[in-house]
Design a protein that fits this description.
Strand order of the largest sheet: 2-3-4
Radius of gyration: 19 Å
Number of strands: 5
Shape: elongated
Structural class: alpha+beta
Low-confidence stretches: none
Largest sheet: 3 strands, antiparallel
Oligomer: single chain
Length: 92
């Protein structure tokens, strides 16, 4: 996904040099938004909360919202939409 963002940024720079488009600032803003969407879709490790409970609750690495409790484990943060990577948990 980072390759896509890099190619879009190069396209924007090429267009800026040739002055092919008038509204390149909007293109740059759109590329930034696309990058944010890709970042959210890329799973990140949840942060464990070390509390004296039977099961360790985990929080979203971006906003801190609870993404796992004794009852539920979410693949996405319901608050900010960040994808959660549980590969270490599932393997163990």
């Amino acid at each position: 996904m980072n390759e896509i963002i890099e190619r879009l940024r190069k396209l924007s720079e090429s267009l800026r040099q040739t002055q092919a488009f008038d509204n390149l600032n909007q293109l740059d803003k759109d590329i930034d938004e696309i990058e944010k969407i890709f970042d959210k879709a890329t799973p990140k490790k949840a942060k464990p909360m070390y509390l004296p409970l039977v099961s360790t609750p985990y929080r979203c690495p971006c906003c801190g919202t609870l993404v796992r409790s004794e009852i539920e484990k979410f693949n996405y943060c319901h608050n900010c939409g960040q994808a959660i990577d549980w590969s270490d948990e599932d393997a163990g």
